[in-house]
């Protein structure tokens, strides 16, 4: 490890830790601070030299690659859809490339007889500068999709009511213990049986799934994912998820998201540090917005009294 006086002279503790690791690997003398700084110039830092910016030319290339991929395997559109999603993320806000990628995605769903998804993407294409000279083609697809949808009673997504019934069945045999400190079951359970489905307080989508899942809720919704307006690395179910993510953590991560993906790559256990980082962002926001509530969350007195209704709920959220 570096001597304390050396670490103090570095720009920040994170660089100090990374430098210590580098010295061990490179064999740099512990007191050679100039060599340490040279090693950690940006050109040697294992991250991108700045944020990956949106590019219409890159978006166009990805869209064309998606077209070629879909033509080769029309019955297996997964890879093509992922390429279209990458094109959507890469397209500059307000560009025709964004509308074209949504339109291509709508064509895939039309051919797969997923007419609701097709119409969703047609609406997105119209709202994102789809070229007017090509609009007749989109209008014709929209008309046909609506006709097929009216005649196709089987082409419907699982209803919210059915999902709610399933979740309520899972919860029906759970109850609070007499002291109201834990959950217990009211019947015998088989090994491996699910007892509770609960939305996580914070989550991180693995980078390899970034163009397949919502970065906020992790739902798999390739048909309706929309991009972040500032970066090229995350997508969302809808504008609500987009707004929630930005308010909770993405306002801090947007400029460095590509660095974070590289920093936390490797074994899945290392990605827990990204989860911890997002918890940290939310703790900072809570401190700034409501200092009293923040103190209730972390005060030792509250941790010693888990049943105290004034702060127990808040601590449970942080602990989760």
UniProtKB/TrEMBL annotation:
Signal peptide: none
Name of the protein this chain belongs to: MYND-type domain-containing protein
Classification via Gene3D superfamilies: 1.10.220.160, 6.10.140.2220, SET domain, Tetratricopeptide repeat domain
Keywords attached to this entry: Metal-binding, Zinc, Zinc-finger
Keyword Cell membrane attached: no
InterPro entries given in the database record: SET_dom_sf, TPR-like_helical_dom_sf, Znf_MYND
Species per Swiss-Prot/TrEMBL record: Anopheles epiroticus
Gene Ontology molecular function, alphabetical: zinc ion binding
Keyword Zinc-finger belongs to the record: yes
Domain MYND-type: 214-254
